[in-house]
Every structure is written in C-alpha cells, then in structure tokens.
Amino acid sequence: MRKMFTIFATLLVVISCGTSGTARAERDDSPVAKTAERGAVEVGAADTAAYMPLLRDRRVAVLANHTAMFSAEEHIVDMFHREGINLVGIFSPEHGFRGRAEAGAAVANSVDERTGVAILSLYNGNTKRPADDVMRSFDVLVVDMQDVGLRFYTYYISMLRMVDACADFGCEVIVLDRPNPNGHYVDGPILDMRYKSGVGWLPIPVVHGMTMGEIAQMAVGEGWAKRADLKVIKCKNYDHNTHYVLPIAPSPNLPTQHSIYLYPSTCLFEGTVVSMGRGTDSPFEVYGHPAMSGREFSYTPQPNAGSKTPPHSGKLCYGVDLRALPDEQIWREGLNLEYVIDAYRDLAMDDKFFTPMFEKLIGVDWVRTMINEGYSAAEIKARWAEDVERFKQQRRKYLLYNE
User: Fold this and answer.
1) Which CATH architecture has domain 21-245?
2) pLDDT tens for residues 145-204?
3) Cα 119 to chain center, whole Å?
4) CA triplet 300, 303, 309: central angle to 5 degrees?
C-alpha cells in the first residue's frame, strides 16, 4: 500500500450557510469555533491505517453508493482497485451504485464500467439478501454510504440485511462511518413493529440521531440484527452537536442541505394526497395540492430525473414554500407536524387525506387519530416525548461520538 493516500480533508464540518453564519462563527461557543479547535471532520474512509490491513489477501465485497468518496476525485471502489485489493463484488442500495435511480425504483444488476466488478442490486424488487454462492464468494464486506439519520431512509436497512447475511456465512463487516447531518437530535415516536416495512425496520424513533456505524452496533447489540463480526471505523473530529454539511447529495430528491433538514417533517406527505415537491427543483422544501385554498405560492410538478411520475404531475398545486425557513428554526422545531396538519385542515378530506403509507412513515397509528381529532402538533409531539427519552437512554451505550 502506498505510504500516503489522498485524504478527503475538505469534508468540512460547518454550520449550513445562513445569514447569521458569521455571527455564529465569532462566538467562542459556536459549533464553527469548536470545529476550528478540533480540525475538520475526517470520515471513516480516510483512516486507511485502521482498515486497509484488514483487506489485504482477502476477498472483499463492498456495499456502497455514489457517496462513498475516498477523496474529492476518487470513489472508495476505485481506490481499492488502484491499490490492488481483491474486490470481488459490489452491492448497491436504493438509488443504485451511482445514485441516479428515483426513490423506490427497482435497480438492475450490472457491471461497474470503471473497474469491471459485478454490481448486485439489493433494491431490485426481488433480492432480500444475496444467494448463498454469492455470500461464499467474499470474506469481508466493507460498508460505506452517507445516511441522513432517519428511520425511513433505507440505506441502513440494506446494511442490516447484509449484516444478517454476513453473520450466517461468517463474513466480517467493516463499516466506514460518516457523520449524520441530522445527528444533533432525536425525535418522533418509536416504530410499532406492526408497521415494519421497507421504510421502517427497527423499533427506533423517526429521527434516531445515529451514524451508520452506531446504528449497526445497536442493531447487533439489541438483537435486532444477527451477531456478525462487526467493526466500525470512526470519523475523526465529529460529535453529535456537529452540523455537518454533506459534500454530495445522498439521493436524487435531497439535493440541498436545507431539504435534508426538512425531510423528517415533509417526507410524511408521502403518506398523504399532498405533493411534497417531487417533480420540481425543490423536493421536500415545498408542499401543495391542486385544491388547497388561499395560497399565493404555486408550482406544477413535472417528470424529471428524480421522479418520473411525481404526485399531481402536470397539475397546478397551491401550497407553501419552505425554502426561506432558516436552518436554525428547523433545528429548534425538529420533527414538525404543523405542515401536515395545515394541509389536512385546508383540504377537509378527513381520513381520505391519508394513505396507508402514513403509518409506515410515522410508525404508529395514533398520530393519524390525533390529527383527525383536532389535536395540535405540540400536543401530539408531547405524547411521543417519553419514546424519545427512553430511546436516548437505550442507545447511549452504542454511541461512538459525544452527545
């Protein structure tokens, strides 16, 4: 192995750009000031001394997507290929290995053009886990994907399915950890496992506040996943109070940091009749419906690269533009049901406003009931507060970074 690798040191930990960014940086207790003291965050992939020796002379598979960048110019798979690692296969999650497929779309198996290594999709509508002969073809699985810290964001589910498979076949799992952009808080009800699905796999809150490495450790430790030989290569200069700005969009419909912050709240519209902005240039930052009333803001969803059939495609939707909402306000409010309740009351459709997906996303049946009965967002949030505190205690022993 070469003595030096190009480290992606420019993966900066900064507060997301906002009009008050300068003022925050000037305070000694600001996250920016603390970051300057610690130095820039280094992702797990940068710590080659911790994991490259574990890959030498072994058959290696990778579970990764487009976010698994080793440097600003080089993907982790390309680095392994360059360094002569015996890379025998690539597994890809939702959105595919290069991150271009729309949400929920089946992704076909293929071959990586750059390295010639076979890519097996874990999101093709069929594959729950690789076939036995595939599992016997490698000794160690390297996981490297940028998550956003939500129960309904599916990358962690692909990882845990592979952890189970690796446990069955005696394969080691190495998670190259990355910061969680929503890692500074925990919010939402714990999943009622009656609603376990491909968008909710574990009994955890909507916003769990953990990195991929931490959630892997917790899943194994709590018996939610099988006991595999698991190692996590930690990030450096990161803690759960760090506001980490992603250098690459993690999926096609989360193109901005602001959309990532709003996503815990606005993704709930996926379980309603309302458009959450798919088919626009601002998915998850706007919401609307053709029948909403008294709204100055409007938009027309159209098929695009991120959504071939967006809700209300080609129809003029009236609604709300959240793009000017300050990041700091989103952080303070956390998971905010006010947007869903606003649209629910405006459309006056009663229970027809919701689809069965709503329970899969929010994780319980009583939130819909409370909205139907006229409770406020604050009153509903108060009911899940105990869930949040219980989970914080439960997860504590699995945390790799300070809270």
Assistant:
1) 3-Layer(aba) Sandwich (3.40)
2) 999 999 999 999 999 999 999 999 999 999 999 999 999 999 999 999 999 999 999 999
3) 21
4) 100
